[in-house]
Amino acid sequence: MAADGNIALLAERRDRIREWLSEQPENADADQKHLDSGSSERAYWHHGYQAAIDDVLKLLTR
């Protein structure tokens, strides 16, 4: 079933990101700089979130 393959791809991507995040500085998850209006971190975070949504939409509409 195509949905199972899509879920597996998403889970693999999630796991790779989790692994990468675990290697980042301890305060990376606490700083929350992406919440600061006008910050480059906020723009970068939203760009990444938009790209993730785009990836999911591509998988779901194959």
Compact overview of the structure:
This protein has 62 residues and is an all-alpha fold.
Key traits:
62 residues; mainly alpha; flat
Structural class by sheet pairing and helices:
mainly alpha
Mean pLDDT: 88
Which geometry do the CA atoms define?
flat
* Percent strand: under 5%
Count of helical regions: 3
The count of strands amounts to 0
Order of helices and strands: HHH
Residues in helix, %: over 70%
Gyration radius from CA atoms, angstroms: 14 Å
Largest sheet: none
Number of discrete domains:
1
What is the CA-CA span between the terminal residues? 12 Å
Residue stretches low in confidence (pLDDT < 50, at least 5 long) are none
Q: Please, could you describe this protein's structure?
A:
The structure is a single chain. The protein has helices spanning 2-22, 28-31, 40-60. With 62 residues, it is mainly alpha-helical. It is flat, with a radius of gyration of 14 Å. The model has no long low-confidence stretch (mean pLDDT 88).
Topology:
Blueprint: H1 2-22, H2 28-31, H3 40-60
